[in-house]
Amino acid sequence: MPGRQESLSTFPQILPFPSLPPSLPPSLPPSLPPSLPPCLPACLPACLPACLAPCLSASLPPSLPACLAPCLSASLPPSLPPSLPPSLPPSLPPCLPACLPGSLPLCLPPSLPPCLPACLAPCLSIFINNEWQDSVSGKTFPVYNPASGEQICEVQEAEKADVDKAVQAARLAFTLGSVWRRMDASERGRLLAKLADLVERDSAYLATIESMDSGKPFLPTLFVDLQGTIKTLRYYAGYADKIHGTSIPMDGDYLTFTRHEPIGVCGQIIPWNFPLMMTAWKLGPALACGNTVVLKPAQQTPLTCLYIGSLVKEAGFPPGVINILPGFGPTAGAAIASHMGIDKVAFTGSTEVGKLIQEAAGKSNLKRVTLELGGKNPNIIFADADLDLAVEQAHQGVFFNAGQCCTAGSRIFVEEPIYEEFVRRSVERAKRRTVGSPFDPTTEQGPQISQEQQSRVLEFIRSGISEGARLECGGKALGLKGFFIEPTVFSNVKDDMRIAKEEIFGPVQQIMKFKTIDEVIERANNTEYGLVAAVFTSDITKAMTISTAMQAGTVWINCFNALSTQCPFGGYKMSGNGRELGDCGLKEYSEVKTITIKISAKNS
After folding, report:
1. What region does 12 belong to: left with phi over 0, alpha with psi -120 to 50, or beta?
2. CA-to-CA distance for 284 and 278, rounded, in angstroms?
3. What is the mean pLDDT of residues 344-360?
4. Residue 8 within any structural domain of the chain
5. What positions does UniProt annotate as the active site of this protein (predicted)?
6. Closest listed residue to residue 425, CA positions, set 476, 381, 458
7. Tens digits of residue pLDDT in 378-406
């Protein structure tokens, strides 16, 4: 249907990354920023330090561009083209030249393996007051590459004493008369825009670190995560001087108006599945409104968030406005949630931890809370849907990011007449999904984030088998190294099975059957979650009926994961409180103050 195709093409940068062709295209899609070179891999010799070479896959397909050669080990297939594309990016991150051949420092810190760029070393500490500091306790914790299971580095571990220091810096930066409080709103916007420019400048470098730290495939990370991060920062940069109050025609001789004022010090706790993008989702609206921030990245994936700290300082943000504390939830996270000097906390993660944060906020100073939590999201496929589209979108909706998405459409309800055919096609598609090294350009799916998460997903798969679901494909761990899992499909799934009720957060697709629209509405809503839902149909009446009936914060019609910075995002029920993104995201970071002035006489 033409209308449907137009609606899908509206969001080329945020739809799940499609399967790559056997050979990379000679040029980037036209929707990408013009500042990127015509051939993406051409930027890698200049943008990726030579010391990253051991982290890249040694086994390369014949179609890999030759411009990757300088970043790889000496063993290359003979079929690579002999010449490199002439286009290289005009600017490089300031720290990169130290890592390039000929100027590689000889004095790497002992905790850094050869594969970690030396220029990242200063960013492995705690970022407070625009300075890199060791933790008060002196503790560090290891960060691992989930694709290999090997340690990347050690990072300073923030605890309560470090949170106290960060809050003190943030409160000082928020004091009346401070540089930050007296700064024009347009200047706040300029700083956010500058930060976006720096992220864009270092995008290949950040995508490399993100892939190494989280196991995400490099190309989707560059095209989806980095682009989403940049767009979010620029969106809120533009909003900074457009947050307006209103005048109110109050009864009597009064002049009344409202001001939207910053809340104060905001604690922000981000997850490991989209570290960079969640950093932007949190920082953008908070800074646009004039708040200061104490931000804790997930202990599994702190590296790109910490690198953002170096860009914050380079962009020119005043000291204390943004503070970044790597650490663990029960220590640093709990200290943020319960701190009397923090005025608001925002958290993205599991529902279980979200409950603890809301409880801690209530027991301390009743700080404002925004929660974006779990989901067990329904995806409803009617018999009149475009089956090819529905199968592919359902596949991407579950398996994107190795299933580690709160929006994963893991409960797929298929109308009875097409059930068997949908299952057959879904199994075929899952078997074609490529799982492998994040730096192999043909890889669609990387590893799970950790051995603990891999074990958890495999336990869910075993429970599905034991409870009587039919395992159509997959179901096992992959490889001798890393935390990979085969794309897994279950059919004949019943609503009371664990795999149909609980959030798995892994590459596991559950396909269920329904007969009537009333039945599927009741079953789809029969969950404690309410984050997103989707429906595939050619009947607009069915589509609108489902979209109205779903108890979810977002409903997609004939598409999936169509997220954009302009659109509010959040959940019903136990999927969270409040909204992120769009203008609704700004409301979560501002207080409305009513000011009334007594005047001698009022005229209309």
Report:
1. alpha
2. 10
3. 98
4. no
5. 372
6. 381
7. 999 999 999 999 999 999 999 999 999 99
Q: Quick check: is 19 in a domain?
A: no
Domain count, the chain: 3
**Among the options 159, 210, 372, 588, which is catalytic?**
372
**80 contacts 66 by C-beta, under 8 angstroms:** yes
What long-range pairs does 512-516 form, CB within 8 A, spacing at least 24? 512/411, 512/412, 512/413, 512/414, 513/413, 513/414, 513/415, 513/416, 513/419, 514/380, 514/413, 514/414, 514/415, 514/416, 515/415, 515/416
Work out whether strand 532-536 and strand 378-381 pair parallel, antiparallel, or are unpaired. parallel
Question: How many Cβ atoms sit within 10 Å of the Cβ of residue 412?
Answer: 29
Whether residue 452 lies in the annotated active site: no
Residue 126's nearest CA partner among 268, 296, 318 is 296
**Which amino acid type is present at position 97?**
P
CA dihedral 407, 408, 414, 420 (to 10 degrees): 170
- CB atoms inside a 10 Å sphere around CB 19: 14
Can you give the residue range of the structural domain that contains 308? 125-144+152-372
| Span of 41-45, 219-223, 319-323, 422-426 with lowest mean pLDDT | 41-45
- Count Cβ atoms below 10 Å from residue 81 Cβ, excluding itself: 11
Q: In DSSP terms, which residues pair with 415 in a beta bridge? A: 514
pTM of the model: 0.83
Q: Is residue 358 located within the same domain as residue 405? A: no
Q: CB neighbours of 577 closer than 8 A, spacing ≥ 6?
A: 358, 369, 370, 371, 570
What tokens were used for 393?
Answer: 């979108």
Give residue 296's Cα distance to chain centre.
14
Separation CA 585–CA 217 (nearest Å): 29
Indicate whether 284 and 346 sit together in one domain.
yes
